[in-house]
Amino acid sequence: MKTIQLSILLLVVSISTSFAQSLPQLVKYDFKFDWFAAHTVNQNINIGTESVHGIGWCRLFVKNKTTGNEDQIQPTGFKYIGDYGRVFEVPRKSGMKVSNGNIKSLMNTKVRFQFEPSKYGYKTMKELEDNAYFKIVYELKVYKPAKDEIVGKQEAIVFLKDAKVPPVTLEQAKRTSNIPTRPGYMRFNKAKYNLGIVYSIVPVN
User: Fold this and answer.
1) 134 near 115, Cβ under 8 Å?
2) Structure confidence at residue 205 (pLDDT)
3) Measured distance CA(202)–CA(197) in Å, rounded
4) Where are the domains of the chain?
5) Closest by alpha carbon to 174, among 39, 32, 52, 50?
6) Which of 4, 55, 126, 129 has a Cα-to-Cα distance from 47 of 20 to 30 A?
7) Measuring CA to CA, how many Å separate 172 from each of 13, 79, 167, 169?
8) Which of 149, 110, 118 is nearest to 27 (CA)?
9) pLDDT digits over 127-150, tens only?
10) Is the pLDDT of residue 7 over 90?
11) Signal peptide position in this chain (predicted)?
12) pTM for the whole thing?
């Protein structure tokens, strides 16, 4: 009797493990640049404002187990701005006017990425999570009449195993002044500038 019970238990565990590791037919993620945080743009808080502009890119890559290549997944229902995966831009001529402590909302819409894992040779989510990643880039500049000042260009690689980055509220974005660059946040430090870009990556069921 105990042998039968043990066999049933092992079968249940085996089925549960298989189910946990199995892949959905379609994997979906929503990406969005949420906030620009101007923690410090001037040493003197009473000095006024700066005009900040920049460009944001986001691409999703999956290693194709059949070909050995890294395939880029195109967004669904969203068209890139120009080339190289640009999803957002604040033009120079219409930069964000900010002063110390300002938080500005960025994108109004999410960028949906979806693909069928089986087409790339994957059978488990664990295997896919280690072989697919988001490449996220943002460049920030401050307007200057003669030549703009480049504050920095940050690049983040976020594998699917870490791609569970929920959006934050305005109040949470205000409290990012001292955190380092990590999934969901890019910190830009140069001379008097302490700026941040907050983004989210959300798996969609």
Assistant:
1) no
2) 85
3) 17
4) 25-204
5) 39
6) 55
7) 41, 30, 10, 5
8) 118
9) 999 999 999 999 999 999 999 999
10) no
11) 1-20
12) 0.86
Q: SS3 sequence, 162-203?
A: HCCECCCCHHHHHCCCCCCCECCEEEEEECCEEEEEEEEEEE
The pair of three-digit structure tokens given for residue 138, joined into one six-digit string: 């943002």
- For 29, the token pair is 């993620």
Q: Which two tokens stand for residue 42?
A: 């001037």
- SS3 string of 31-99? EEEEEEEEEECCCCCCCCCEEEEEEEEEEEEEECCCCCCEEEECEECCCCCCCCCEEEEECHHHCEEEC
The CA distance from 16 to 34, in Å, is 37
Backbone dihedral region for residue 6 (phi beyond 0: left; psi -120 to 50: alpha; all else: beta): alpha
Q: Scan for tokens 């059978």, then name that residue.
A: 123
Distance CA 35, CA 103 (A): 7
